[in-house]
Amino acid sequence: MTSPDSPSSIVGTAPGLPKTARGERTRTRILKAAEETFGTLGYHRAGIADITRAAGVASGTFYTYFSSKEQTLRELVQEMGRRLRAHLERETADAGDRLEAEEKGLRAFLQYLRDNPALYRVLQEAQFVDESIYRRYYESFGERYVRMLARATDRGEIRSGNDEVRVWALMGISNFIGLRYALWETEMDFDDIVATVSDLLRNGLAAGGGREKS
Amino acid sequence: MTSPDSPSSIVGTAPGLPKTARGERTRTRILKAAEETFGTLGYHRAGIADITRAAGVASGTFYTYFSSKEQTLRELVQEMGRRLRAHLERETADAGDRLEAEEKGLRAFLQYLRDNPALYRVLQEAQFVDESIYRRYYESFGERYVRMLARATDRGEIRSGNDEVRVWALMGISNFIGLRYALWETEMDFDDIVATVSDLLRNGLAAGGGREKS
């Protein structure tokens, strides 16, 4: 990250993007402070002054990297999405097949959400600032997920089917299970939850012979 | 509804609850206007004057039935939940078993959401007014749903399992599938979507022999 030839997509020459490693660290610190501030106060109540105070930078520094509070939210949501995806990729890297990756992925997601509760709140609130922020987050997540299911079908790990619909169903499961068991309940162990969802994804709900019925 | 002995739970003597059928109609009209107004303008931008204008009542009339905008939101969310549940009960009444009820219920939910898009927006926004409104909506929905799954298990229609976790997974599926295919896309036919989710719920995703793996 110290070279201008760094492959990082963050370092660049577009306006607002830092040109040095130090600038990149400052920008990252402002985004982290925005995450905490939006997560605690809510987007509407949070001011730029709250963000710069939390980041320990002057307010002029904020405007070196961001043009507005809304742009900060937009970039923060993208950054949170990248961070979560990287986390899930790491945690599912050694899964033997797609269904094991789903199981490990759900567990990793629940733990991540419990450790980073601001993610959920900021994302939900973004809907009311600009729905396209929220929509792009899930669409971008969904596109990669569809490719993963398609590869799993090719490898014979799951049956073929409408993977886009399946992906939205799977994201819906993680979202509500996360809300209920990682955010609202902060103590519950994830073992039984993950086992129940994994069984649903592997086998469905039908009492013996479900496969023949459809 | 014309008798004071009406069994309706709405007619009552508690402060703010109408004592006559006419009063009940006015209160219902105000709630309907609040739904439209919150759905269009958003809760924060909508004022009580917007609600009374949409309902065609004087602002004094509003305060006969509601103490504040927040109380209106709270009662509206409860009322929307009751209406949706009644709709789903009607639409799934002739289902032969729980898995058929899930299929009919998802289709009915998607159509309902497409016809009543304010439901989603008002409910989502309620999270940021008072999270307990949002939480109570889903908890109340979930409690009934758990009882339905338990009865289906007793009848041998589905395998036994942790029904509370299953219910939050099922509600998550409906929520995201509804967001994606009923609200964001307003033209798409529901047949393939419902068939895909139904297949997931009946059979899971595992390629042949999933049941043995778990």
From TrEMBL, chains A, B:
Keywords: DNA-binding. Coiled coil: none annotated. It holds the Pfam family TetR_N. Residues 1-24 are annotated as: Disordered. It comes from the Bacteria. Residues 24-84 form the HTH tetR-type domain. Residues 47-66 bind DNA. Residues 1-11 have a biased composition (Polar residues). This is TetR/AcrR family transcriptional regulator. It comes from Microbulbifer flavimaris. The lineage of its organism: Bacteria, Pseudomonadati, Pseudomonadota, Gammaproteobacteria, Cellvibrionales.
